[in-house]
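[Q] Does anyone have a clean structure-token version of this?
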Amino acid sequence: MKKRNIILLSVLGIGLTAAITLFIIFGNTLYAHKLKHEIKSTAPVISEAVIDSILNTFEKVPLSALPKPLLVSGNFSKPEFQGHFHGRTFYKVKLPQAMQKIVGDWRIIDFISEDQKSTWFYSMDAEFYWLIDKKVLHAFLQLKNKMEEKNLDWKAIKLRCGHRSPNHNKVVGGASMSRHICGEAIDFNVGDADKNGTVNYEDKKKVLALCELVIGNKGGIGLYPNTQAVHIDTRGYRARWDSY
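[A] Here you go.
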């Protein structure tokens, strides 16, 4: 009888824990959808000054002050990556802030490393530590403006990633010293930019030409032939490459 009671209590405990967890996840998911809906109706960000003003609202945190679990899980503390973080600070961003727009209609959360985003729903008070060079956000905005000047469809640009932790960069097969690790890079795919009903290399070629104007000798462009993928970064000197 005693053993059966222990088993029953264990099953009830597991069931209660599962129910509470599901309730929290469901509640936070609804909260996130509500935030997303509210942000969707706000005006897009169309100036570098607005980008800067948004970034200036966040607390800046040095690498040494990141939460220890994040330092470990993200591989931030490994010696080989220290040069990437020298003199840089992370933006401490709460969930509601992460949902706000930062370039056009793209939101801050879209540029945050995926391995941090996978845990946000455990708490409505979730905090993200975002490493980003504002110059790459400016460059992305400049690309938007130039595309619209050329009557190309900015909505054809599908953001793939911004910042990556060293760990997430390794998981996705990024270069060992990728500019994504230090928040200087953005990857995206090009859809039907010329609005002719077909997605092909002509769309990408038109966007790459504008990337050359925006990036010039101030950064890198990953060309990735035979794909619709493009990489831009603000490393401070000219770099071009064809393969992943």
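[Q] Thanks! Anything notable?
[A] The CA atoms of residues 223 and 232 lie 9 Å apart.
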